[in-house]
Amino acid sequence: MKFSMMTYTLMRQGEFTPADCVRVAAELKMEGIDWVSTYGEDPALLRKMSEDAGLTIAAHTFFMRVKEEGETLLSVAERSLDNACILGAPLVMIPTAPLAGITSREENHKVWCERLADVMPLAKKRNLTVTVENFPGALSPFVTADDFYKAKELFPDLRLTFDNGNAATGEDHVASLKRCIKDVVHVHLKDWTRSESAVEGMRQMLDGAWYAPALIGEGIVDSVATCRVLKESGYDGFINIEYEGSGHRADEGVKKVLEFLRAAL
User: Domain 2-192+221-264 falls in which CATH fold?
Assistant: First the structure.
């Protein structure tokens, strides 16, 4: 198993820097790093920092959001794809969050496919693989294997970043992985606590239950089973450790997860 630092896991807590992400990944003997945005840094510098620490650039994750005057979704995508090339990332991942003002999964799926139609040829010119992930939420367009394969009919080159925690909010995550494994080129591991009824601070997901982030191994998602399926299938890509909670300091949480998974596997 090749584990990669998901920079989002550290950076979201607000007390870490990009240099910290590299340092922690190296200290924990992780093999790769997924730069989730560039945090305003020169991607060439991020690449050098990573490679100097012995880390492979596993992926570049970017958000299709317009933040500055004069930007368009297309210009954001082109800049981000160029950043991926500078980073030396072989693939990009685009989080497909439900869009404001859209009240159905079907319409969200349609609009996101329209966006992918613009991105796919730009990525192909740059020799980059485009992936989407299982993204959580009652209105999310990509939760299940069916959601992914509906898009893949339109875009044969589209691949999947399999997120076991997010898949688990809509279907059996192990069965979903087995179905999709031939198209999986990157993996996120994540965990949740779950409630059948509404609880303050928890989000309702596609299956109707309510979820809150948990550290991998402390929730309801079987990440050991996920890794075993990956190993048995011959998967040789990277596996991100993702944590969206606040109960653990992120670097300590990642260390605990790696110790748990390495011992179990």
Answer: TIM Barrel (3.20.20)
